[in-house]
Specification:
The chain is of the alpha/beta class. The chain is about 40% helix and about 20% strand. The protein is built from 29 helices and 21 strands. Strands 11-12-10-13-14-9-15 form a seven-stranded parallel beta sheet, with helices on both faces. A six-stranded parallel beta sheet has the order 16-21-20-17-19-18, with helices on both faces. The longest helix is centred in the N-terminal third of the chain and has 32 residues.
């Protein structure tokens, strides 16, 4: 069956090279089909206005509003020392709120003539904060003159579609481009099987595309959404169902632990008993390992619920059964940390082949990109001979050169940083496909698990081990109440004086200015008007040692340090020699220092909800209570403050992940979570559309079971190829 030529047509031919280039670079749109699937984010009604009261900070927005007043100011500046600088301030209103627009320099003349009080227009720009008020600096705008032929033609009907846009291409220009290609929608191939579409009363794909881009009524939009959501859910679930189907056909070596072997010896030396949750999840894993198909399991665990222990027991079971196990970590710091904690937990059981090693012992080796040649060669030798039963490493494990004697289990830590293809590359290392256990500390709502990790079975660890302490979290509003920040540093001193340690986390390192490309840029007046850059580790460490934390032993840790230096800093902190560690998010996952009880997160509003939850999980890991202070300068009413209040109010990661999903656009969650998933979800809302996803999963499973190659459904095959091509492209870009 031929692909549809009209939808394959490159945009360059249809819209001209200049527009096509911007669409490709900024929106990832290359063909007519891509553009037709670039749906409006929302619709404005010609008679109504946007809610200016709830604009998101730092985002590119399009608003429809009316000019309330416009004033031209002159001022002196370095460029115009004699008071000749010009600034036009325009206030627009929509009844719910007001918003300031600012134009500078030569850019003031046109808007000064056109934006007269009473004028209605669409404005597009990035929302920033200046003098604690929201503003758009130098927005693009399009006047809405109800009578002009062109405007009426472009915005047929009373509903104006507002498209996800960029600074280079405003929503209304995208709208005009879509009008040009809309006739091609008639040729769109339908991916849904006809019985499914008719059974659920869904409109055809061409009709849905027409209704989403040129709706005449709100019912049109609802019809289009209902149909397009099904497309997305169904095509994605078919891709996952095919993966599950293929995986189920693969052979694997069953791995049953030997009685009284390494696993028993390990369990005997544990100073505590496993929680019920750990026992239940371990049983699920051991049952999977005993079958002759590869296990594909996702282990979700709250921060500190003991996932590493469960994974280690699975690895020991495989070593007992004569195989090898590999654990893949996203960063070197984390790989080293895992290696350290696993060898400590195993004691003499990790000293295989050495004097003093136990009779059941095996070797546990570390393999990372920055290791010296000799150490690396020895580690690789231990793997190929089978001397090492367990290897812990970073992406370096996936390299072609790394060979295993008999790889039986792959454990992937912090899954959202690994694409499907990377899992596959490591799987290819076994003589037969190894079993796979994926761990994540980011709690994932059920639907996201079905969508993103739909090719995996799920186990959840939600009990915290005994002896874990509660963490108190508070928001510190540094701008409204500066004395709260001083108190925060006093609290850190108090913790240290009581023999504990503290983290201070910053969004940035602070040595970026050395980059000539960045610092060479002249700052435009509107950049100056933007809010200040995020706080940096090096600056804050300096301020703290000279100021509120003087006399304490403070060190810094960030991702651009040499791996040996990073390791040395972590060792000193773990040993209690350093009292305060000022770090970037390199400490986000897996760092375990039970004596660290306090954490201050600077510019906390710059981090996502689940990231804050992860960071907070680094304190309160011992018997002393933990304290997490979220420092922000955002105003009380802002969405960022509400997000921080949510984090401070609950320690339940699943609850937070729901809040996180509701507050962010889904794409971010899925984009982080798996290569390719982001681009496929445009109208499907992972939380609201739980039912559609669950039903689509059932339908997809039965379609694939009946016809794994989809020979009878050419439209579905085409849609699937397009989705998988995008995944592959994304993976290669990441790779």
């Amino acid at each position: 069956m031929d692909l549809v030529p009209a939808l394959e047509e490159p945009l360059k031919k249809v819209l001209g090279p200049a527009t096509a280039k911007v669409m490709a670079e900024h929106l990832g749109l290359h063909s007519v089909g891509d553009l037709l699937h670039h749906y409006p984010r929302r619709y404005e009604e010609r008679g109504q206005l946007t809610h200016l009261a709830d604009l998101p900070m730092d985002e590119h927005v399009t608003v429809v509003a009316q000019v309330a007043d416009a004033r031209l100011h002159t001022f002196a500046s370095t460029k115009a020392p004699r008071g000749k600088g010009q600034r036009l301030e325009v206030t627009i209103t929509d009844g719910s709120g007001r918003l300031q627009l600012v134009f500078f320099g030569n850019g003031v003349h046109k808007p000064h003539k056109e934006l007269l009080p009473g004028t209605r227009a669409m404005f597009a720009g990035k929302v920033s904060l200046f003098n604690r008020r929201l503003q758009l600096a130098h927005p693009a705008y399009e006047l809405l003159r109800g009578d002009a032929e062109e405007t009426v033609e472009t915005w047929a009907g009373a509903l104006i579609p507002i498209y996800p846009a960029t600074a280079k291409l405003e929503s209304w220009k995208i709208g005009k481009a879509i009008q040009t290609v809309l006739p091609s929608a008639q040729e769109a191939l339908d991916p849904l099987p006809e019985t499914l579409r008719e059974g659920r009363g869904l409109v055809t794909l061409p009709e849905a595309l027409l209704k989403i881009h040129r709706p005449h009524t709100k019912a049109d939009i609802d019809d289009a959404h209902a149909r397009l959501k099904w497309d997305e859910a169904f095509v994605l679930q078919v891709a996952l169902a095919r993966r599950r189907h293929t995986d189920a056909q693969l052979p694997a070596v069953p791995r049953k632990p030997a009685p009284d072997g390494l696993l028993t010896a390990f369990d005997d030396r544990l100073p505590f008993t496993l929680t019920e949750g750990q026992q239940k999840v371990s049983k699920e894993i051991f049952d999977d390992l005993a079958t002759d198909h590869p296990m594909h399991r996702l282990l979700q665990g709250e921060v500190g619920s003991g996932k590493t222990l469960v994974a280690l027991r699975a690895m020991l079971a495989v070593v007992d059964a004569g195989g090898q196990a590999a654990m893949l970590a996203p960063t070197e710091v984390l790989a080293q940390q895992h290696h350290r904690s696993i060898t400590e937990m195993m004691g003499e059981l990790a000293e295989g082949g050495m004097l003093g090693g136990s009779e059941h012992a095996t070797k546990v080796v570390l393999l990372t990109g920055s290791m010296g040649t000799a150490a690396r060669r020895q580690a690789m030798l231990d793997l190929v001979t089978g001397e090492a039963g367990i290897v812990i490493g970073t992406h370096a494990l996936i390299e072609d050169k790394v060979q295993f004697h008999d790889l039986g289990l792959v454990v992937v830590d912090e899954q959202h940083r690994f694409g499907v293809e990377q899992r596959d590359a490591l799987r290819g290392k076994g003589k037969q496909p190894p079993h796979l256990l994926v761990m994540t500390a980011t709690p994932i709502p059920r639907t996201v698990a079905m969508t993103v990790f739909g090719d995996l079975e799920t186990s959840v660890l939600d009990q915290l081990p005994a002896g874990r302490s509660p963490i108190a979290s508070h928001v510190v509003p540094a701008a409204d109440k500066p004395h709260f920040l001083s108190r925060a540093w006093e609290r850190v001193r108090e913790e240290v004086e009581n023999g504990h340690q503290a983290y201070v986390v910053c969004p940035r390192i602070g040595d970026e200015e050395d980059d000539p490309k960045k610092s060479g840029k002249k700052k435009s007046p509107e950049d100056e008007a933007e809010k200040r850059p995020p706080l940096a580790v090096l600056d804050i460490a300096d301020q703290l040692t000279k100021g509120p934390l003087s006399g304490l032993r403070v060190e810094v840790l960030h991702g651009r340090m040499h791996p040996d230096d990073k390791d040395a800093v972590m060792r000193r902190f773990a040993a209690g020699e350093t009292q305060v560690l000022v770090a970037t998010t390199v400490i986000e996952v897996g760092v375990n220092v039970p004596n660290a009880t306090a954490m201050v997160i600077m510019d906390a509003d710059r981090f996502g909800v689940s990231q804050l939850h992860q960071l907070r999980g680094r304190v309160g890991r011992g018997s002393a209570a933990g304290l997490c202070l979220l420092v922000t300068e955002m105003p009380e009413a802002s969405a960022a403050r509400q997000r921080l209040n949510a984090v401070a109010s609950t320690l339940d990661g699943f609850e937070l992940s729901r809040i996180d999903l509701e507050q962010r656009r889904e794409g971010d969650v899925l984009g982080q979570a798996q290569s390719g998933a982001r681009t496929s979800l445009r109208v499907l809302a992972v939380i609201e559309d739980e039912e559609i996803i669950a039903e689509a999963r059932e339908e997809a499973t039965s379609v694939v079971a009946a016809d794994p190659e989809l020979t009878a459904l050419p439209g579905l095959r085409t849609a699937l190829d397009a989705l998988l091509d995008e995944e592959r492209e994304q993976y290669l870009e990441k790779g």
